[in-house]
User: Which sequence fits this backbone?
């Protein structure tokens, strides 16, 4: 039977159409796959990060909090550490006072700069939280950290109940507001041993009632977060609690002395421990001694924790602060000493290594000189350690991209941290 040419034309058109649709579907699928990979890379835990608290200068008309958060983002980081407490308008950020802000949840919703940074494209948030329910305003012009904690010489029941409610509600707010974003919030405290010894005298024995009160305070915060998570249904967002410590060397050198690490941490068993690590980093002038002593301190802190269900696999101790001020070191040595800490922490396996900080927060009273805990100095100059972070993020993203192409998945954190030790950014030649 003869087939007319008229028959072939529509068949050919259909065939070409099917091929076009297949190619288009393939390309679309590939584009979506690449987009997913890129999104996963940008939300990966790069370990390195920094923070913004109490900066002494700024360069734009934006609020200090928003300006520094944007600088952290522009550097390449997906982590923001800042503070939320009743002194938001008098200390750290100088934000406008709003009498309607009477809780952490209201601070998160009614203060525009706080809401803006919480809404920004950060994956990880480390936040020092202090309850409005615990605050007694200081005299004008004076700073007194004990005004935002009520466990000195014991913790009254009314403050405990009020704190529980405030942290519980704030946790629920975070879980509800940021559900589906993938954000992870770590809620904790500033250097806990200076709360336990509020006179900053590490030589004195601890006040037993203050120790008991602070233990109840930390337990209340952990329980409030746990209970809020238990009572809510949520997806693709998470909140954890941490306790920050800073006098670890005292515990190691004076085993009978009481510090947060060997008393409160062991009793509360928080989700995580943050280590403000100056007593294990700054005394040492050589990389080998810093490496040895920091690992001893990290091992000790890990030993104070008990196993806990419901947490991601991995270490539960991180570096919450480290840094070498420029008042004592030139730019290159400041960078090099920071790299010693970074590499030691990566070798040990800490999930976070947080440099203090984006802009310097300390000025010498006698001379008005900037102490120089900075990534960007008071003249707007990006320091070598800024470039170390910036280049590290670029190398990290390139490695993750290449790894995902080869393995069709992103590497484990252990694989990443071991590879990161060889990044050029962490191996400068001086």
Assistant:
């Amino acid at each position: 039977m003869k087939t007319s040419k008229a028959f072939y034309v529509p068949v050919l058109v259909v065939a070409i159409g099917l091929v076009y649709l297949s190619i288009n579907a393939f390309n679309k699928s590939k584009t979506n796959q690449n987009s997913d990979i890129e999104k996963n890379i940008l939300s990966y835990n790069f370990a390195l990060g920094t923070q913004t608290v109490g900066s002494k200068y700024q360069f734009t008309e934006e609020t200090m909090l928003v300006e520094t958060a944007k600088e952290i983002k522009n550097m390449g980081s997906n982590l923001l550490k800042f503070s939320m407490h009743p002194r938001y308008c008098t200390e750290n950020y100088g934000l406008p006072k709003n009498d309607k802000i009477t809780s952490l949840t209201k601070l998160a919703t009614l203060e525009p700069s706080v809401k803006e940074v919480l809404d920004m494209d950060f994956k990880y948030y480390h936040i020092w939280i202090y309850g409005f329910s615990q605050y007694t305003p200081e005299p004008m012009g004076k700073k007194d950290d004990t005004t935002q904690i009520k466990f000195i010489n014991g913790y009254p029941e009314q403050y405990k109940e009020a704190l529980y409610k405030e942290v519980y509600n704030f946790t629920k707010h975070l879980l509800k507001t940021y559900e589906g974003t993938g954000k992870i919030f770590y809620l904790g405290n500033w250097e806990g041993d200076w709360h336990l010894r509020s006179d900053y005298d590490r030589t004195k024995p601890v006040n037993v009632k203050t120790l008991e009160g602070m233990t109840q305070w930390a337990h209340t915060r952990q329980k409030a977060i746990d209970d809020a998570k238990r009572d809510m249904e949520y997806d693709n967002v998470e909140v954890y609690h941490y306790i920050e410590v800073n006098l670890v060397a005292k515990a190691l050198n004076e085993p009978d002395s009481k510090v947060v690490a060997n008393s409160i941490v062991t009793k509360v068993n928080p989700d995580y421990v943050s280590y403000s690590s100056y007593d294990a980093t700054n005394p040492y002038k050589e990389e080998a001694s810093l490496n040895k002593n920091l690992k001893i301190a990290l091992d000790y802190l890990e030993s104070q924790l008990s196993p806990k269900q419901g947490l991601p696999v991995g270490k539960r101790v991180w570096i919450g602060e480290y840094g070498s001020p420029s008042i004592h070191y030139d730019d290159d040595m400041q960078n090099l000493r920071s790299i010693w800490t970074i590499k030691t922490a990566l070798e040990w396996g800490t999930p976070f290594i947080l440099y203090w900080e984006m802009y310097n927060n300390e000025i010498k009273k006698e001379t008005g000189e900037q102490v120089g805990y900075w990534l960007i100095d008071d003249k707007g100059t990006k320091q070598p350690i800024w470039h170390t972070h910036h280049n590290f993020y670029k190398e990290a993203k390139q490695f993750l991209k290449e790894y995902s192409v080869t393995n069709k998945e992103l590497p484990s954190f252990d694989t990443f941290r071991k590879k990161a030790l060889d990044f050029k950014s962490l191996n400068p030649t001086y």
